Amino acid sequence: MNSTNTNTQLKRLVSGSILCLAAALLAGCASTKSAEQDVTLAQVSEPARATIAKETAGGQVDKITKEVERGKTVYDVEATVGGKHMEYLVADASGELLGTEVPIEFSQSPEPVRAAAEKYFGASTGLTVMKGVEYGETHYEVEGMKNGKKSEVTFDPDGKRGK
Predict the structure, then answer these.
(1) Is the Cβ–Cβ distance between 140 and 120 less than 8 Å?
(2) Which residue, 84, 87, 78, 80, is CA-closest to 41?
(3) pLDDT above 80: residue 94
(4) Sign for the pseudo-dihedral over CA of 99, 100, 105, 106
(5) What's the pLDDT score for residue 2?
(6) DSSP assignment letter at 110
(7) Residues with Cβ within 8 Å of residue 9, at least 6 apart in sequence
(8) What pTM did the predictor assign?
(9) Across-strand partners of 58?
(10) Which residue among 55, 93, 99, 142 has the highest number of C-beta atoms inside a 10 angstrom radius?
């Protein structure tokens, strides 16, 4: 075999490998997006439905998204309770409440979070904060205007950027 044939075969092998890798990556991304699915309360498992009813009593369920987190099916529930936007993470199989997100005043967030948010947004006025506790870990989602656009950033209690 001469070097021209070897080079051509090598180029075909590399090109084919790159195409296979790209196809695999695209398939992986598509499957991640399809894992989330909006559902109705009637489509939720009985244990999860009982937890949602208890947590949102007197309020209104706005949206339920079924997804897989940490290998388990869960429901991300958005609701309005007592006039406030609330979020709950509920396990499908057991109905266990895995997490909550509740609105808090900016001044109630830890000082490192306030400092990091002020640095990120360039101001502290007009910022809204949701305090979340999921799987025992606390985070703060801060929303406000940055460069003329609505933006959201997540911090851990020490003011380090997350997710």
Answers:
(1) no
(2) 78
(3) yes
(4) positive
(5) 56
(6) -
(7) none
(8) 0.73
(9) none
(10) 142
Q: What is the DSSP letter of 105?
A: -
**Number of Cα atoms under 13 Å in the Cβ half of residue 114:** 10
User: Residue 102's beta-bridge partner residues?
Assistant: 131
Mean pLDDT for 39-66 is 97
Between CA 45 and CA 7 the distance in angstroms is: 58
Q: How many CB atoms lie within 10 A of CB 35?
A: 11
**What is the structure's pLDDT at 9?**
53
Q: pLDDT class for 21, splitting at 50, 70, 90?
A: very low
Q: Mean pLDDT across the stretch 151-156?
A: 97
Question: In the chain, what are the domain boundaries?
Answer: 37-155
Q: Tell me the two tokens of residue 128.
A: 């809204």
- Identify the residue whose tokens are 């890798």: 21
Partners of 61 in beta bridges? 79
Q: Pick left, alpha or beta for residue 135 (phi over 0 → left; psi -120 to 50 → alpha; otherwise beta).
A: left
Domain 37-155: state its class.
alpha beta
Residue of 62, 38, 149, 115 lying closest to 140 (CA atoms): 115
SS3 133: strand
